[in-house]
């Protein structure tokens, strides 16, 4: 059963400049690190264009794996540890990270 | 440019029973109402299996539309109003609703 690692990023303090810096570092540093993680099948980054309820989420990323075992191996990998260190540096305290499974 | 309406549902008060009631009413009442919304291209419901950071999100639903104009028409439709009334009844105050656009 495929599983998805769903990352939700909250807006950083510091206005438009801080948001642009986060988005640039995400694209230039974090995405390339994530793409090296073993077992990653796809990675879809989306920007929030509008919040229809109160929300401070500004970006999402859905990362697909073939199954829970493959995700667990990925989470334990050196490549994921490097990606984790990077995201804690560029988005400290701004990440919600969920394992989700699509309903049949 | 396709757009997605991303719904994030927080855990209801009331333990496992309240969560199961929400999930049952979502599947039996809300999903059929949403599927009638004009312009909806696909609808992916996912359950949160694990939160790797602190989070009270238990379910997500990604609803795809062909573009912003199609989404706006959907949001203004009688069918969406009916779906909105339903979700406010079965998940009061538990919904975060975002318009997201995938990065190229």
Model description:
The structure is a homodimer of 104-residue chains. Chain A has 104 residues and is of the alpha+beta class. Chain A has a single domain (3-100), classed as Alpha-Beta Plaits (2-Layer Sandwich), CATH 3.30.70.100. Chain A is 40% helix and 34% strand. Chain A has helices spanning 15-35, 68-75, 78-90, and strands at 3-10, 42-51, 57-65, 95-102. In chain A, strands 2-3-1-4 form a four-stranded antiparallel sheet. The interface between A and B is medium-sized, with 29 and 29 residues.
Could you give a quick summary of the protein structure above?
Chain A has about 100 residues and is of the alpha+beta class.
Let me know the average pLDDT of chain A.
Answer: 97
Taken in chain order, the helices and strands of chain A follow as EHEEHHE
Low-pLDDT sequence parts of chain A? none
Percent of residues in helices of chain A: 40-55%
Span from first to last CA of chain A?
Answer: 10 Å
User: How would you write the strand order of the largest sheet of chain A?
Assistant: 2-3-1-4
User: If interface size is counted as residues with C-beta under 8 Å from the partner's C-beta, which chains form the largest one?
Assistant: A-B, 29 and 29 residues
As a percent range, the share of strand residues of chain A is 25-35%
At the first level of CATH, the class of chain A is Alpha Beta
What would the CATH topology of chain A be? Alpha-Beta Plaits
Number of individual domains of chain A:
1
Helix count of chain A, per DSSP? Answer: 3
The global form of chain A is globular
Rg of chain A to the nearest angstrom? Answer: 14 Å
Oligomer: homodimer
